[in-house]
Amino acid sequence: MATKGTQTRDRIVERAAQVFSERGFFGSSMTDLLAATGLKKGGLYNHFESKEQLALASFDYAVGLVEARYTEALRGKTGAVERLLAIAGVIRSLVDDPALRGGCPILNTAIEADDTMPVLRTRACAAMTGWQRLIGSTVKNGVRTGELREGTDPYAVATVVTATLEGAVFLSKLYGDPAHMHRAVDHVSDYVRGLAT
Amino acid sequence: MATKGTQTRDRIVERAAQVFSERGFFGSSMTDLLAATGLKKGGLYNHFESKEQLALASFDYAVGLVEARYTEALRGKTGAVERLLAIAGVIRSLVDDPALRGGCPILNTAIEADDTMPVLRTRACAAMTGWQRLIGSTVKNGVRTGELREGTDPYAVATVVTATLEGAVFLSKLYGDPAHMHRAVDHVSDYVRGLAT
């Protein structure tokens, strides 16, 4: 059973994650974070030694929400094409029914952190690499079983799928219009089906 | 001839644009901006009434650098496929030889500004719309002349091309590896050639 301290910590992270997701690391002031968590400064520092520590925990929480969607969507799916289509479907679902308001945690964190906060940048990199490996290993398996064409490059597929979908998250958010995501998922789906033998 | 005031203003914008490009709006402190421009606070405020005004001018300057690359790359090109390939080529060139260090100004600005700074967000939106219209009108012309297949959707092509290339700018920057951009441009080039009759 979770202790009271752990429950408080979890609640802080859950609420802070929503603030960071919408306002970014630099855009989230201590005032914003205290208002969202309902704590005083001392109470927050009992659980996290710095804003950066809280941002790291919030990032892990946000990525965990998306990973849970993947686990659910991939359950029972073994074919390479159906798995790749399910991955695209998860990202589509995040635009229509977001895990957190504010866009993709990897994209948001990486754009802000890349030149300024190496620790957050490393975390964003690891999350993206996890996603690319999921796609790459699915492609490798598909080639081995003969479902996908011989010579299909797992790295190229991972780049194309993640780049197109991240770009579409960005466009849909910028315009407040899910049409960009829908068009991008249609394109990725055609592309994935085109890899089949 | 540019007056001394205009020259100073231009030099401020040029240097501030580099700071904003790498550190973002919130990540760029007045100290950073003063150090980069070599001015005292009062000197900066002679030319820009706020950090936001300076950020807007810097954004326009950064977008202008990219637009100049497009003008150059599209000169003398009239075919739809060659124009779309040239557009992809410009984005590829920005990874290998950036106009400013720090990634795509539209992507960086939009990600940071979308939930927090409506004026910058509007500016990023307008720049993206300009890019999408360039692609969309190229596709419309190509369909009209019979170079591209009847029924090719200009909106879908604009979304797929901009999403894939923006996503690739992001991935290449995140990993410090231009391979992501090269793979994405190869994919976009195949896609564009596939639209031809």
Keywords:
9 helices; homodimer; mainly alpha; Tetracycline Repressor, domain 2; 0% strand; 197 residues
Proportion of strand residues of chain A: under 5%
Shape estimate of chain A:
elongated
- CATH classification, class level of the domain at 59-193 in chain A: Mainly Alpha
Radius of gyration of chain A equals: 19 Å
Q: In terms of quaternary structure, what is this?
A: homodimer
State the secondary-structure class of chain A. Answer: mainly alpha
Q: Which residue ranges of chain A are poorly predicted, with pLDDT under 50 across at least 5 consecutive positions?
A: none
Q: Give me the CATH fold name of the domain at 59-193 in chain A.
A: Tetracycline Repressor, domain 2
Mean pLDDT over all positions of chain A: 92
User: Could you name the CATH homologous superfamily of the domain at 59-193 in chain A?
Assistant: Tetracycline Repressor, domain 2
The total count of strands of chain A amounts to 0
Sheet of most strands of chain A: none
Please name the two chains that share the biggest interface, counting residues whose Cβ lies under 8 Å from a Cβ on the partner chain: A-B, 43 and 43 residues
What fraction, in percent, of the residue positions of chain A are helical? Answer: over 70%
Q: What order do the SSEs of chain A take from the amino end to the carboxyl end, as H and E?
A: HHHHHHHHH
Distance between the amino and carboxyl termini of chain A: 50 Å
Could you say what the CATH architecture of the domain at 59-193 in chain A is? Orthogonal Bundle
How many helices of chain A? The count is 9
